[in-house]
C-alpha cells in the first residue's frame, strides 16, 4: 500500500468522516451520495488555499485545517444554507504522519463546530495546496444572494471586523506579541467562526448577503454591483474589538474597512426586521444603508464623503484571490 | 480589476457556464445552487491533477481542459449518475489569456460532450494544478457501488483497454510516432470518453462498478475487496485495440492489464443481463467472473494462474494518486 493510500485511509477514519445525516454514502467509492429533503436545493462552493499565497510557509497544521474549512464554510453561511458536508482535495509534498494527524484534528474540530461531514476527496503529491468544496442545503428559492438589496434597506454586519487583518503582522512574523489581545486576533485569523446560524436566520429577512473575505468595502461593492444600487457606509459605525484597537492603534478602522479575511456576514435588511435582529443577534451592527445609485460611499463621523483606505498591508489573499 | 478577476469573468462567459437544467444559480455568488428531482440523490466526486504528477509540464491547454474534466466525469459514470455540473478550482502561475482561452475551449468541449455545466470555482496563483468536483444525480438507492458483486456474476469491461497506457511514451516524448495508430492512442489519452450512458444503463443491472483509472488489475482488486469476493480475469479476453497492438507490440496486453488511465467502466453483471448488454453495448466484453474468495486471479490462455504484470512503465498517476 502506498503512502497516499494510507493518507486516504487516515482521513476515512477521521471523526469528521463518520456517518452523518444527509450523507447516504461517504468516503471510499467513486462518488459520495448526498440526500436532500424534498423542496431543498444544494448550495455548493469551492475554495483553494495555496501555501505562500493564502497562508504562510510551514503553517501549524492544526490551525491550517481549522482555517481552511472555516473559510470554505463561510460561503454556506453567506447563502443561508444549512451545513451538510465537504470534500477535501489535498496536495502535499510528502506524507508526514504527525503533520497529517494534526491537520486532520484541526479539520475535524472545525467540521464538528460547523456540522459538516467529510464525504470524499483526493490526495496528491505536489506543492502544499488545499481545495475544499462545501455543501449545504437551503429551501428552494430562499437562498441569500448578492442581488436582492433594495433602496432603503439597512446595511449590517455580523460583528466586529478587522481582527484578522490586524493579526496579519503577527501571522507573518513581522511583529511579536504574546498578550491576550494578540492571542485573540490570532484566534480570529486561524479559526474564524462561519456565521452559519445567523445566515439561516436571515433567510426570508435579509435581501442580500455575502461573507466578508476581500474586505468590507470591496465586498459591499459586490452587493452594490449585483443589486444595481449604492451602499453607504458610516465608518464610525463599523464595530471594532478592543483587542484590535490595542494592537493596531489608529490603523484599526482601516483594518476593518479594507483588511479582509473577516468571514463575517454583511447583509442588507429591511428596517422592519431590525428589532428582531437586535434581540436575537446583539453582536450584529447597522453600519449604513442602501441608496439609489452605484458603488460604495464611505462617510466620516461628520457625515462627509471620504476616500476609502487603500488595502496597503501585505495580504495573503491579495496576490491570488 | 485584477487579472484573476478577469479570469473569473472569462470562465463565467464560457459556453459551459451558461444556464442549464438542474442549476438554479450558477457562477457569481457565494455558492451555486443545484436542484434535484424528487427521489434522487446527488453524486459527488473530487479529482486533482497536478503538473508534473498527473500530466507533463507545458501541456497543450486545450487537451488539458478536455482531459481534466473527462477524468473527473468518469467517476459519475462509475456510479451510474446522470451528469449535472462541476466546479473548477484552478491554480496557475500567471494569467495568460491565450492559454486560458484554449484551456476553456477544451473544457467546454468536454463539458458539452458530457452534459456538465460549470457552476462555480476558484482561481488562484501558484504551481499549475486543477481540482474538479463533479455532480451527478441518481435515483435514491440505485447508484452503482463497488461492494455489491455476487459470486457467479460475470466480470465485464466497457471496451478496449490499454490505449492510454500505450500512449504514455508518446505523451512523455520518449517516442516519436505520427501515424494514425499513434494519433488514436494520443486521442484516448487526452480525451477519454466517460461512459456516462453505459453507467446509467447499468443501474438495476450491474451489481458493482467502477471506472478504471489505476489499471484493470488494481481496480478489480478494489471491487473484490469491497465486495468480499474474488475476481478472476482471463487475460486473453481483455479487448485490445489494433492501434495499441501496432504501437505497443507484445507489451499491449500488459498495458491493458496494468496500465491505468483507461476511464472505461469495469462492472460485475448477473449472467441474465448478458444478452441485453451484447445487444445494446457491443463494445463491452466479458473478461472473467466473480468467485468466492478474495483478491484478483489472472488466468492465461491455457487457464493457468499467472502472476500479474508489474506496472513498470512511467505513469504520471503512480507518484501522486
From TrEMBL, chains A, B:
GO terms classed as biological process: thiamine biosynthetic process; thiamine diphosphate biosynthetic process
Binding site for Mg(2+) 3: 30, 75, 211
Record: residues binding Mg(2+) 2: 47, 75
Record GO terms (molecular function): ATP binding; magnesium ion binding; thiamine-phosphate kinase activity
E.C. no: 2.7.4.16
Binding site for ATP: 121-122, 146, 213
Enzyme class: transferase
UniProt xrefs under InterPro entries: PurM-like_C_dom (IPR010918), PurM-like_C_sf (IPR036676), PurM-like_N (IPR016188), PurM-like_N_sf (IPR036921), ThiL-like (IPR006283)
Matching Pfam families: AIRS (PF00586), AIRS_C (PF02769)
Reactions mediated catalytically: thiamine phosphate + ATP = thiamine diphosphate + ADP
Binding site for Mg(2+) 4: 30, 45, 75
Binding-site positions, substrate: 54, 261, 313
Pathway the protein acts in: Cofactor biosynthesis; thiamine diphosphate biosynthesis; thiamine diphosphate from thiamine phosphate: step 1/1
UniProt keyword terms in alphabetical order: ATP-binding, Kinase, Magnesium, Metal-binding, Nucleotide-binding, Thiamine biosynthesis, Transferase
Gene3D superfamilies assigned to the protein according to its UniProt record, in alphabetical order: PurM-like C-terminal domain, PurM-like, N-terminal domain
Amino acids binding Mg(2+) 5: 214
Family: Belongs to the thiamine-monophosphate kinase family.
Protein's recorded name: Thiamine-monophosphate kinase
Organism: Aquipseudomonas ullengensis
Taxonomic lineage of the native organism: Bacteria, Pseudomonadati, Pseudomonadota, Gammaproteobacteria, Pseudomonadales
